[in-house]
Design brief:
With about 110 residues, the chain is mainly alpha-helical. Helices cover about 80% and strands about 0% of the residues. It is built from two helices and no strands. The termini are far apart.
């Protein structure tokens, strides 16, 4: 009887070991699947962020170009040439030695 109890215990231990091995294998396989899925998701996000970075860099370059143009315009606005040009165009002013010719209006 004692020997029969040992053989039952051995079978029970083997069965328990197999179940533990199956359980561990299932957990490892599940983790591998989850890591693969999350890796694909992260790659997709990385591509999206690279696209956004390119767009933002293009906007930065555009704004830097615009800032340079505005700085050049600011310098031009402070010149005497600009003041004279605006006075002629908007106010109709002329220099004392200039003659202003206006086209005649035909009826």
């Amino acid at each position: 009887m004692n020997e029969m109890g040992k053989s039952r215990r051995k079978r029970k231990d083997r069965w328990g070991n197999r179940m533990a091995l199956i359980g561990i294998t299932f957990v490892v396989f599940s983790l591998a699947v989850i890591v693969t899925i999350e890796g694909a998701s992260l790659k997709e996000k990385e591509l999206e962020y690279q696209y956004r970075l390119q767009n933002l860099q293009a906007q930065v370059d555009k704004e830097q170009s615009r800032a340079k143009e505005l700085e050049e315009y600011r310098v031009y606005v402070q010149t005497k040439q600009y003041v004279e040009e605006v006075a002629k165009q908007k106010l109709g002013l002329v220099k004392p030695d200039e003659i202003l010719l206006k086209p005649s209006q035909k009826k």
